[in-house]
Specification:
9 strands, 26% helix, 9-stranded mixed beta sheet
Amino acid sequence: MIHQGLLLPTSRITRWRDTNPDELYVYFAILLATGIIVKSRADSYWNTARDLLSSPGFSATMSFDRYFLLSKCLHFCNNDDCNPHTMTRSEAKLFKVRPITDHLNQRFQQLYILSQNIALDESLTKWKGWLDINQFIRNKAATVGIKTYEVCESQSGYLWRFEVHVVHDESPQDSPLSGVVPVLVLKLLNGLEHKGHTVWMDNFYNSPALVRELKVRGFDCVGTLRLNRQFVPTELTNLTKGALAVGQVCGCTSGNVDLVVWRDKNLVSLISTYHGLAT
């Protein structure tokens, strides 16, 4: 490539040498350390100036050139094995990192037993580089980044499983449980059935059909609800702020599913298979 004029003789890649497991462990340790010691630029960690912001441990462990080369060349899959014609769009987009996400999910689940209360929500990992899967969410601490859907223990925040958001589902919804959200929820909770867990979710996920299905699978569900969801009674969907006084509650029960609307400054709607209306 140098003879073809594609690389300069002084390019870092010309100094590449094969790595080994021991060096990769050091590299991953440095990656973890950069999440604890936060600096604005990667090369700032290797600044040798003796000042209050210096971090001599990085340069003593690995040179910046070697760290940069490993970051540039690190791969977990053979690109020749990626055939977009035989993969779904989401599979193709995550092909290079799928072995890592699968391994992490497997280890997270093996190493910890969740307590009763678990939360299902989305998170945004800050990333300002160019990625087709980047998301913009205004009300998150990191407004731009990679969106993940996560199952965590409510008490400790332990991450038990996650899925990276890739594409929006545009397939037809033949039933209340065939949409992308119900399928995602059932996938994230797979393996936790009939263990006594109570799932806390917000109105992005909750629906009467989904919580009833989760009840069949041994989960209790609690969370806010959008009143325009399918199977919400018209008595609740037609409610307005003027229909209820501040602090007044209106509710409906169908089998083991409770729906409650409470008037605060605005109407707050809840769905539960865990609490009765009396509580």
